[in-house]
Amino acid sequence: MSSNAASPMSSFASSSAGRGSGKPTSFVPELQSMMFALGDARRPLHETAALVEDIVHTQLIHLLQQAAEVSQLRGARVITAEDILFLMRKDKKKLKRLLKYMVFRDYKSKILKSIDDEEALETDKFISSSVNKRQKLAHSFLGSIDQTGDFLALFDDDDVDEVKQERLERAEKQTRMMDCAQYTEFCESRQLSFSKKASKFREWLDCSSLEVKPNAVAIEILSYLAYETVAQLVDLALLVKQDMTAKAGDPFSHAVSAAYIQYHSATAEAHLHGLSVAVKTNPDSPENTPPSTPTTPASGQQSQGKSHSNTLGNGGLGHNSISKAKQRKRKKSAAACGFEAQSDAIQPAHIREAIRRYSHKVGPLSPFTSAYHRNGMTFLAC
C-alpha cells in the first residue's frame, strides 16, 4: 500500500462496488461487535465498520490471489495451508502467532471429538497424541523450507506475545467501569469470529468463483487472518486517535494530519448544516452564557411595565419566543451529547490515517509495517 503505487482506497471502492452489485453478504454488524471487543466504543460507527470491511475483504482477496499463484507453482489443485504459510514466512512474529492458533485448533478438535465419542479423556494419551494434522502439516512444511532453523524454533518459542498482552490489558481496562449488561455484551462480542460463520465467510470471499479454491484448513487460516487484520486496524486506529487528541500544554498538539483536519472540518460542517448545531469553542462567549435574571422595574417605569406585561401573557409573542429558545437550547444540548458520544468511537479518518502511516517505510508506525509487499499493497495480516 505504498503511496507511490495504486491507492488502496481505490481498491476498496471497487471491491465494495463489486460486492454491492454481485453479492450482498456483509459482515458490518459482526465487525461492529468485534471492534467493540477490541477496544472501540460500545457502539462503533457504521461507516467505520464498513470501511474496515472493505479493507479486510480487499486484503484477503489479494492474499487468495497470491496463495493461488503459489499453489499453481507447486502443482497443487487447491489452496492449502502450506501456500499461506509460505506467504507469511517473512514476518516471523505473525507466523508464530498463526502456529499457536493452529495448535489451539488441534486441541479444540481433539476435545470436541472426545466429547462426541463419549470417551474418557486420558491425560497421558492426550499429551502424547496432541500433535496432529495441523501442527504436523506446519512442522513438515516449514522444516522443508527452513535453512537456518528459525522456523522450527518458533514451535518451541514460549516468549510472551506483546501484541496479545497489550490487547488483553486494554480489554481489562475497558471492562473496569462496565455494569453487568455491558460486560455480558462485551463477553459475547469477544467470542465473535469469522470462523463461526464459515459458510457466510466463503460467500463473502466468493470462493465459488475462484479457479483454485481453498480447502477447509486454508479457510480456517483465512478466517483467523481476517480477524487479525481487524484487530490490527483497531490497534493502529487507537494509536492514531490518541495521537490526534489534543492535550493541554502539548506544544505539538497543533501538528496533526492535514487529511484528518480536512475530514474533521467537513464532518463538523455537515453536522452544523444537518443538525443546526453551532459548536462553541469558547465556553465564556456571550452566546453560551445563561440569560440574565430579570429585575424589578423602577417606579417611574411601572406604567410602561404593566402595558408591556400584557404582551407577555400565556398567549403572547414573548412567551412563544422564550419557549422556542428553550426548545432550541434543548436540541443543541441533545445534538452535542450525540456528537460527544460519537467522538469516542473510531472515526473513518482514524482508519485512513492509520493505513497511510502503516504504508510508509519511515515513520512512527514503521516497526509495525509488513515485510510483504505485492502490487503496491502492504499486507496487514502477513
Q: Quaternary arrangement of the chains shown?
A: single chain
Strand content: under 5%
Shape: globular
Query: Strand pairing plus helix content: what structural class?
Result: mainly alpha
Low-pLDDT stretches: 1-18, 123-130, 267-294, 296-317, 333-340
Strand order within the widest sheet? 1-2
| Cα separation of the termini | 13 Å
Q: Roughly what is the average pLDDT, rounded to an integer?
A: 73
Q: Work out the number of β strands.
A: 2
Total number of helices:
16
Largest sheet: 2 strands, antiparallel
List keywords for this structure.
single chain; 382 residues; mainly alpha; two-stranded antiparallel ribbon; 16 helices; 62% helix; disordered N terminus
Please characterize this protein's 3D structure:
The chain has a two-stranded antiparallel ribbon. It has helices at 8-22, 28-37, 46-74, 81-87, 92-116, 123-128, 133-145, 150-153, 162-174, 180-190, 198-205, 216-244, 258-275, 302-309, 317-343, 348-359; strands at 373-374, 377-378. The longest helix has 29 residues, at 46-74. It contains 16 helices and two strands. Strand 1 (373-374) and strand 2 form a beta hairpin. The chain is globular. It is mostly helical and 382 residues long. The two termini are 13 Å apart.
